[in-house]
Amino acid sequence: MRRVVVTGLGCLSPVGNSPEQAFGNLLQGQSGIEIIPEWQNLLGVHISGQVKNFNPEDWIEPKKDIRRMDRFIQLSLAAGIQAWRQAGLPDKLDDISGNRAGTLVGIGLMGIHALLDSYEVFKTKGPNRVSPLFIPAIIANLAPGHLAIQYNLRGPSWAPVSACSSGAHAIGEAFMHIRDNRSDLMLAGGAESALHPLAVAGFDAMHALCKTYNDNPKAASRPFDAKRCGFVMGEGAGMLVLESLEHAQKRGAKILAEITGYGSTSDAHHITAPAEHGEGAQRAMQQALDMASIPPNQVDYINAHGTSTHYNDLCETEAIKAVFGKHASRLAISSTKSMTGHLLGAAGGVEAVFSIMSLMHSQIPPTINLENPDPACDLDYVPGKAREQPVHVAMSNSFGFGGTNAVLLFRKYDT
User: Fold this and answer.
1) Residue 164 annotated in active site
2) Which residue, among 219, 236, 300, 217, has the nearest Cα to 21 in the 3D structure?
3) pLDDT tens digits for 275-318?
4) Looking at 164, 210, 315, 377, which residue is catalytic?
5) Would residue 229 show up in a list of annotated catalytic residues for this protein?
6) Known catalytic residue: 342?
7) In whole angstroms, how far apart are CA 66 and each of 11, 105, 296, 360?
8) How far apart are CA 133 and CA 114, in angstroms?
9) Does the reported pTM lie above 0.85?
10) Are the beta carbons of 22 and 349 closer than 8 angstroms?
11) Contact 221, 370 (CB under 8 A)
């Protein structure tokens, strides 16, 4: 089994359009949740976490390709380019290197904007006016597909689709490809852009979204707080460059962190509700620890799934207590979703970036809006303000509808 390291990070999120900008804003407790004016007379939910000041022309060449891509593909491409550049990789791999390189991008809801725009054309103008670019714009695997074309990544290229654990599954499976010597380099993460009125209406119909704070959006996402009332939808992309240690060392790459563990389980319980006591989440966390051969008491920080929904926050708390025992009360745990909202399929990718930034900078972002802690969620969720402390091992949790669970474990790199 080979050691796998992280050499590049890319991130576009409601709190910033680079890993450094986003993490800096997290440490300041700045929320990216805002009112969406055009939703106010249309929907019961008026708020979301949008990626701001994003111009696809800054990232995509040739510019005519932009119209071939739904926004989720554009975001994934921009985050992938950021990570690739930070890793110091060439503009394009040669065929021999490319054969041992691949890309996995987790997606939750595919290209809902392009899908519904094309359906309007179909209804109003007829089938002959539907664009031949419609299908390539919406299908999930075109996010990794465009990255593969750009960098000549001729190995595995596919899109895990596992709801809100999609991004974490993509990183975990990419890790396994390298660990098992099937690839030397992988570009992996998650992307999502589903801030469409239909998607919002659908989640609202399930009573999953917060609408109590429509007039106070920055207070709306409240993980582990007794007054939490549902999650806030967001969008974004988070990407990592993963390499075998030997590959990174051979080319003199700067190593940012090491990925050591991955857990993947199913609750096999319910289409939306987590299993009682977070049983599936427990097994995923334990799998990641076992793979890394790291005892629970060596974990310093957990970037929690922490959606600000009643059952997720309760079950995740119970799962952490079950896995970590007495050490659970000593862990620093935070939900960055309190500031970004829930990025759905992108969450695992973006939160992996945040977890690695915590390792690199020895700083833990807070859980904002945690003003009235739920007595049943009684762990140290770093309320209100960021914390400066050494972080040697960090866990990132991602759980999704359908009972899907993915857990990643990172540690500071040492020789």
Assistant:
1) yes
2) 236
3) 999 999 999 999 999 999 999 999 999 999 999 999 999 999 99
4) 164
5) no
6) yes
7) 19, 18, 46, 34
8) 10
9) yes
10) no
11) no
